[in-house]
Amino acid sequence: MIRFAIIGSFGIIILCLSNLTFTKIRFHNHPEYIKAYESYIAHPDSLEIQKKMYFEYKRATMTTEEFDDYQRVLKLIEKKGNK
User: Fold this and answer.
1) 63 phi/psi in degrees, rounded to 5
2) Which pLDDT value is given to residue 8?
3) Which among 58, 80, 78 has a CA at the least distance from the CA of 68?
4) Which helix (H) or strand (E) holds 16?
5) Three-state secondary-structure class, residue 44
């Protein structure tokens, strides 16, 4: 019965926490992503904010080498789009 109470209490606490709180816990070493995510929550229809959030998510989740490759590909796409 004590286990049930402990697990139930933990479950209720998790249900009461927002997605933003989980994001802040998960990405605590990446404040730029947290800022971008907060902006996205405030303005979910803004395409620029969505792009910024996705860019910061990639920065937070990729290794340095992977992220450098990702940036190079984005620059190539931009050059191709500007022609």
Assistant:
1) -70, 170
2) 86
3) 58
4) helix 2-16
5) coil
pLDDT at position 3, please? Answer: 87
Is 27 in contact with 43 (CB distance < 8 Å)?
Answer: no
The pLDDT tens digits for 30-61 are: 999 999 999 999 999 999 999 999 999 999 99
Amino acid at 83: K
More reliable by pLDDT, 83 or 27 = 27
Instruction: Indicate the DSSP class of residue 62.
Output: S
Q: Average pLDDT, stretch 2-28? A: 84
CB atoms near residue 27 (< 10 Å): 18
How far is the C-alpha of 83 from the C-alpha of 36, rounded, in Å? Answer: 30
